[in-house]
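Hey,
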Amino acid sequence: MKADNTMKKKLFCLLLSVTLLTGCRNQDDLALPFANMDGLNLSASSSEEAPDFFASDLAVIPDKLNHMSDPAITAEASLIVNNTDKKVIYANNVYERLYPASLTKLITTLVVLEKADLNDMVTISYNASHITESGAKLCGFKEGDTIKLEDLLYSFLIYSGNDAGVAIAEHVGGTIGEFAKMMNQAAKDAGAVHSNFVNPHGLHDDNHYTTAYDLYLIFHQLVTYDKFLSIINKSEYTVTYKDASGNPVTKNFLTTNRYLKGAENAPKGITVVGGKTGTTGKAGSCLILYSKDKNKKDYISLILKADSSDSLFSQMTDLLKMIK
């Protein structure tokens, strides 16, 4: 069954790649190649069935479902999908090319879960311990520290430490550049062919971009991993590692997710399992969530480029209110 799904996704990737051959430059160019094709049994309702060549475990979002409007949802791109029934509840600008900020950490995590051994011990390099970009969130690891890869991943996802990201990339890929190649291949394998990643953390680079739909595809892949769900469900994490002299260091990292911290309340009947935040000046405020309703159906929701953190979580709550 997994082999069959892999083949379907490869076929899907091939179809998506057709748009790249024409040189995507705007939102309309970024629409899926089958988005406006006739005869594929894609209705205007959110309950359309995916065509046979499409991986049957994914939601299809044709262009006519990609321009929904709600006055409460003002972010540049937004999406909520019933992941159990593969139904689109709300979608707007999901194929627009945008900067992902720390939502980049999702594809980094997918590479780690697919390719690496979480029991590996990682030595923090000079590069990982000397990120100088203004506003970059850091765990505070020092050159020569040794830490378990699993602990780095927890710190990376829960606290969003960019130094953890560099350490992960260098350990798994050898260099940032080689790891970026792994990221882009993993994205393509997931069907996310309208993305390009050049670093593991999402600090700004003009050539580092994605789309809301690509992030949905990547996140959809990640939530099949119990380890990932366990990590994003934690409100905090305590890690103990050794410094360059072999002395133990203990740090506690708090989540950036307001729902898990109790600073934001999900609508009644909705349980937020977890997700990932991201913020840079050019990406704006971003958030992706995995949630469940009272019937245990699961949902993936996403906001890209909200104008503030408060607005981000307010809009996400409004998206979650659309769950019936």
